[in-house]
Amino acid sequence: MKGRRQKISQDSYLQKDRAEPENYVGAQTSMWITENNLTSLAQTGYGLLEHILSPANLNNAYKRVLQNKGAGGIDEMQVESLKDYLIKEKDELIASILAGRYRPNPVRRVEIPKENGKQRQLGIPTVIDRVIQQAITQMLSPVYEKQFSSNSYGFRPKRNAHHALQQCQCYLNEGYNYAVDIDLEKFFDTVNQSKLIEVLSRTIKDGRVISLIHKYLQAGVMVSNKFEQTTVGVPQGGPLSPLLSNIMLNELDRELETRGHRFVRYADDMVIFCKSKRSAMRTMANIVKYIREKLFLKVNMEKSVVEFAVNVKFLGYSFYQTKGAWRLRLHPKSAERMKTRLKELTSRSNGWGTDRRKEKLKQFITGWVHYFKLADMKKLLLRTDEWYRRRLRMVFWKQWKLIRTRYANLIRLGIASSKAWEFANTRKGYWRIANSYILSTSVTNERLKLAGYPQLTDCYLNARKLN
Asked: pTM for this structure?
């Protein structure tokens, strides 16, 4: 599209052209309140939209979108083109939002694989809509942070999955050993928009902001160049959707707190802890009824269970009890996915060079270990490292390929000439050779480390020291 935005018309749907706040630095005007630390909406009356569109707030939103990068939306504009476009169109964009004429673009539908093999549907907004959503989020987040439950950990500042898991440990060690694991079925796709707007309206008194958020909810989605309306759900993929999901599920949090329950919620994943199975079963029935009748959300009863805590999976972890204390461990499915990913990264036929393979392995192992470092898994990682190193040796043997290359490399690695020649001519399979005495004493563990191949156990022990 090269700098021009696409107008989309689908039946009676008219998509208006719009621009975005520019390089807002130094562009303040006297009519805007540039304070970017709003913590109460009561004091603003009907000026919240002006706060959102203030130069300081918009400039921060622009910088955040630029930093996050990401793919373009349906107009194909990339973040690199955003600044030039906004410089030209900022004034018209802001005027259209203030006048209520602005209409967000439909999101672009993309699918990413889920853990269960199914596809998760994401909606990618245009870069301009991402800036506006980010501006809204920045202004509303500090307000709603005061309302959110201390038992909610997802998509919140200074809170993460590790904090949620440690809180789970606390409840378990207090004797709440039965867990109610409630699965909200396709939560983001089934949010009742009318209910969400009602909840928002309790706090946000500027009707223009409510209207703008509602427009984003109903902006629609483009699937294979066809427009589809979105009368339910909060499209995943934009800066605004995590905040809206927390605002909606805060209703559930408050209900659980009113009833005196111990619980932990991370986004739409939630576990309620009880002291007995009977209590847990009663809690399950009551809370499922509340979710369905008051929040108008769907519960997947096949996946929602009452279990003793050792059988629960939460955020990729599971729990176990030793010497009277509850601790964290890696869930078997998480371990299986980790090995599957390592197998892909050490494939002998993916065409990768040595440097690219090392880079990919380092990125994955470092990130994976950092997330799962709370789990007691040293023995598991020691076994996994043995298998992983064997796969690396298999890759080397495959890369050496020719007899003369194998012979020369084995000699260089200290193998006697006769043995090197004998081994270079072997017809045994790659996986069997990778476990042989010759390769394990030539391509040693120490040499693999010196070559820059990360080891799971080393990363894990280092992460635990720093934790």
From this structure: 0.84
